[in-house]
C-alpha cells in the first residue's frame, strides 16, 4: 500500500513539476519587468517575488483609483451622470 | 459545370463562417450590457485562451459600463451616510472587486472567494454577531482539488519558494492554503483581471474628472463630449 502510494505520489509530482514549470513560464510572460529584461534564465523564486510585488502594486493602484473615484463621484451631479452614461453605452 | 459546384462550396464555406463570426462580434458590441445569455455563449466560443479574454475589447467595455452602473448605485444607496473618505473609497474598491468577480463568471477560485466573502460578511453582520469564527477556511477547502493535495513538490521544496507561495496565496483572495500549481493558475488569471480593472477605473476617473471640471450646460457640453470621446480612445488602443 505504501509503495503504491509512494509510486502514485512520484508520478503525480513528476507530472505536476512540468505543469509548475509551464505555469511559472506563463506567469513570467505576464510580468512586465521580466518581459522587458528578456532573460530566459529567471529562477522560480524570482518570478514569485516579482509576482508578489506586482500584485501589491496593482492593489495599490486600485486603492488610489478608488480614492479618486469616490471623491469624483461625490462631486458629479445627475446631469453629468446621464451624459457619462450615454457616452459609455455607445 | 460539374466542377464548379464543389469549388464554390469550398469558397463559400470559410467565408460564411467568417461572416458569421463577424456578425456575432457586431452583435456583441451593440448589445453590451443587456444581452447576457448571448454574451455567455459568445465568450465561450470565442475566448479559447482564458487569460487573453481579459484583454478583449468587449469584456473591457462590459466591465466599464457595469462598474459605472454599480458605482452610481452605491452612491445613491449610501447617500450621505458614509462621510469619511476611507470608508467611501473602501466601498468603491469593494464594488469594483465585486463587479470584477462577476465578470469572471465564477470560473476561478479568487472570483468565487470575493463573492462569497461579501455574502458572508453581510450574513455575519445580520445574524452571527456572537460567533467570531470566520468560515472562509471551510468554504475554501470545499473548492480544493483533492488530487492536488497529495502532491509533494520535490524540486521546489525550498523554504524560500514555500514562503513566497504563502505570500502569494495571501495576496490572491481565496488561495491562502492552496498548493503551488493552483496558486499559479489563479495568479495568472488574477493579474490579467486586475490589469483590466485598473484600466477601466483609470478611464472612468478620467471621464469623471473631465465631466466634473466642465461647466454644466450643453454648449460647452458638446465640446466636452468630444474631449471625453478622445480621452476614451487611448485606453482602448493600449
Termini separation of chain B: 51 Å
Number of strands of chain B: 0
Largest sheet of chain B: none
- Helices of chain A, by number, come to 4
Please identify the oligomeric state.
heterodimer
Portion in beta strands of chain B:
under 5%
Gyration radius over CA of chain A: 23 Å
Strands of chain A, count: 0
Coarse morphology of chain A: elongated
Mean residue pLDDT of chain A: 71
List low-confidence stretches of chain A: 6-12
Global morphology of chain B: globular
Greatest chain-chain contact: A-B, 50 and 66 residues
User: Quick check: average pLDDT of chain B?
Assistant: 63
Structural class determined from secondary elements of chain B: mainly alpha
Strand content of chain A: under 5%
Structural class of chain A comes to mainly alpha
Query: Helicity of chain B, in percent?
Result: over 70%
From the N-terminal CA to the C-terminal CA of chain A, the straight-line distance is 64 Å
Features:
heterodimer; A: 90 residues; mainly alpha; 87% helix; elongated; B: 238 residues; globular
Report on the structure:
The complex is a heterodimer of chains A (90) and B (238). With 90 residues, chain A is mainly α. Chain A contains 4 helices and no strands. The longest helix of chain A has 32 residues, at 44-75. Chain A is elongated, with a radius of gyration of 23 Å. The N and C termini of chain A lie far apart (64 Å). Chain B has helices at residues 4-30, 36-46, 57-78, 85-103, 109-126, 136-143, 146-149, 159-171, 180-213, 218-237. Chain B is globular.
Amino acid at each position: 500500500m505504501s509503495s503504491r502510494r509512494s509510486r502514485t505520489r512520484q508520478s503525480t509530482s513528476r507530472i505536476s513539476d512540468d505543469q509548475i514549470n509551464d505555469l511559472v513560464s506563463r506567469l513570467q510572460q505576464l510580468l512586465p519587468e521580466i518581459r522587458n529584461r528578456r532573460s530566459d534564465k529567471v529562477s522560480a523564486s524570482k518570478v514569485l517575488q516579482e509576482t508578489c510585488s506586482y500584485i501589491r502594486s496593482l492593489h495599490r493602484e486600485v486603492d488610489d483609483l478608488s480614492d479618486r473615484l469616490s471623491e469624483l463621484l461625490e462631486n458629479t451631479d445627475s446631469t453629468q451622470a446621464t451624459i457619462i452614461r450615454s457616452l459609455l453605452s455607445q | 459545370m460539374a466542377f464548379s459546384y464543389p469549388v464554390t462550396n469550398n469558397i463559400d464555406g470559410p467565408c460564411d463562417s467568417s461572416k458569421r463570426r463577424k456578425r456575432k462580434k457586431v452583435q456583441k458590441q451593440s448589445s453590451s450590457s443587456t444581452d447576457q445569455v448571448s454574451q455567455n455563449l459568445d465568450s465561450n466560443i470565442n475566448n479559447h485562451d482564458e487569460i487573453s479574454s481579459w484583454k478583449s475589447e468587449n469584456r473591457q467595455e462590459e466591465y466599464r459600463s457595469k462598474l459605472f452602473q454599480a458605482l452610481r448605485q452605491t452612491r445613491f444607496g449610501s447617500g450621505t451616510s458614509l462621510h469619511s473618505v476611507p470608508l467611501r473609497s473602501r466601498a468603491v474598491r469593494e464594488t469594483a472587486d465585486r463587479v470584477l468577480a462577476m465578470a469572471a463568471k465564477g470560473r476561478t477560485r479568487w472570483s468565487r472567494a470575493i463573492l462569497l466573502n461579501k455574502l458572508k460578511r453581510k450574513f455575519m453582520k445580520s445574524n452571527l454577531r456572537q460567533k467570531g469564527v470566520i468560515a472562509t477556511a471551510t468554504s475554501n477547502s470545499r473548492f480544493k482539488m483533492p488530487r492536488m493535495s497529495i502532491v509533494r513538490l520535490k524540486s521546489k521544496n525550498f523554504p524560500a519558494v514555500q514562503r513566497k507561495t504563502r505570500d502569494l496565496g495571501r495576496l490572491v483572495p481565496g488561495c491562502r492554503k492552496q498548493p503551488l500549481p493552483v496558486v499559479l493558475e489563479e495568479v495568472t488569471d488574477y493579474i490579467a483581471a486586475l490589469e483590466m480593472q485598473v484600466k477601466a477605473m483609470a478611464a472612468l476617473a478620467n471621464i469623471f474628472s473631465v465631466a466634473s471640471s466642465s461647466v454644466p450646460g450643453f454648449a460647452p457640453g458638446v465640446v466636452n463630449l468630444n474631449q471625453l470621446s478622445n480621452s476614451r480612445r487611448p485606453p482602448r488602443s493600449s
